[in-house]
Amino acid sequence: MSRREDDASTIPETIVDRNNGYSYIRRRFFGKGGFAKCYELEKLGSGVIYAGKIVSKTLLLKENQKEKMAQEIHIHRSLEHKNIVKFYGYFEDTHNVYVLLELCRKRSMMELHKRRKALTEPEVRYFMKQLLEGVSYLHDLKIIHRDLKLGNLFLNDHL
């Protein structure tokens, strides 16, 4: 069975938020992290597209795993900064927890690095300034990211 078929069997093509009745169509697969799989999710009827971070509840069986997920949601929903991916909401069904995030169409710094191999000094200054502004905002709130890496630095349409 392919990875795509495996994903399709555990994550429905149409995802329904039972709290408000909104439905989302699972589109393009972006990748997978420690706990989550990330897909493009389109909200039916509006055409709004999100990055959907989807966590299987089979990975949240231990109490500390549930607490970690709840803490991540609690912290991310409280953040509002131009250099931090926007949090739009979350919901769950019997199998998964769905987190709706800003879609960063330009993908990540890791993908930019793979494509370009090198950046110019002005580009590095530009990106570093944004990174440091975001980290400074977090530190002002006494929050430590703990997983800063190229794959977690996302680029939106405004770079």
UniProtKB/TrEMBL annotation:
It holds the Pfam family Pkinase. The keyword Kinase applies. The keyword Cell division does not apply. Gene3D superfamilies: Phosphorylase Kinase, domain 1, Transferase(Phosphotransferase) domain 1. Residues 24-159 form the Protein kinase domain. SMART domains: S_TKc. InterPro entries: Kinase-like_dom_sf (IPR011009), Prot_kinase_dom (IPR000719), Ser/Thr_kinase_AS (IPR008271). GO terms for molecular function: ATP binding; protein serine/threonine kinase activity. Keywords: Kinase, Transferase. One of its GO terms (cellular component) is cytoplasm. GO terms for biological process: mitotic spindle organization. This is Serine/threonine-protein kinase polo. It comes from Lygus hesperus (Western plant bug).
